[in-house]
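Researcher: Can you fold this with zinc ion in place?
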Amino acid sequence: MKGICSKCGMPTNIGRTNVWQSNGVIVGKYPPHLRGTIYDLDEIKYLFESISRQTGLDISRLIIEGKRKDALRFISSMLQHFREVGGGTLPPPRNIYEIIFNLCKIWGLGAVEILNYQEGETIAIPAKNAYFLPMFAGDAAGVYESIEGYRVIPLWEGDESELTLTLKRGEGEPELEERIEAEVERGIPSREGGDLWYKLCGECSAPLELSRLLSWDLENALITEKLTGNRAFFHNANGLFAVVKLLVEELGEDIERIILSSERVFAKNLYTRVRGATSLDAELNKFPLRSWGRPSHIKKEGGSFIIQVDNPYLDHLVAGRIWGLYEAFNQQEYIFGLESSGSGFIKIELDPLSA
Ligand SMILES: [Zn+2]
């Protein structure tokens, strides 16, 4: 099948355009060399639902803005690259949209086709299997804005399985947008080093382990984690990072507490379900493969653990997931402590809660 590696079965684009670094981070091979992450969609949805429920706030506006800025940055850089190789001119918009829709399928974001593209003030985009509506809508707005050169507001009808997204020229909230743009630009702190290496596919150069972890249904834009059945998606990491940073600024440490506790519950349920078919170490090893960060030092003292993770893609999300992971595999509740350095690593302390 076109676009699929005949050796490992993954879309060739994934391995050819990304590098799995030794520090637990996936980075794009081409400018702007953004960090990518292979998210657990079920986890991200659970997280945002928990935040909305517990704060009583609709945070979809913030999610849309974070993704819009993220897409704007990515697509603008892609267009710059096209201009350079095209001697200063760009391919027609229709061709650019086709390239992007193809990426949407490869990254598991949604199956999109433009039926009637006309340059103009409004565009309606039919889509299937959109990964998460606020994120998908933000992506679409950012893509359109980069190509057409004016700001749009995304509206939709239908649900994630089948919808029509409409993009209409309109103004936003400049103050919120400036703040989120600054966070997207600042990005995730990261440290070099690490000793990770992967056996790469001889044809597309993606880690072979990744093809054992995930399966791709390219036509329907679905990526599935084989072990859990959870849907996955591959995307820039900065947008979500910026959304969470702004939430913390607005709502304070409550957000960090909500992220930790909802991640703990999510991970504990997930790993309890699959515990018989895998191990704690095998699951930790999957973190850097997905660009979640690299568990670098694990110290065990009696029943307690200190776990250092380098380059977590979101400190509290990764920490809460590890908390639930240890509880599921060790069948033990832990008192949790977190040292978040703000400079590319976290330390998690787990002490057994004695009965
Ligand atoms: Zn391959």
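Model: Folded with zinc ion in place. The pocket of zinc ion is lined by residues 5, 7-8, 10, 15, 201, 203-204, 206 (CB under 6 Å).
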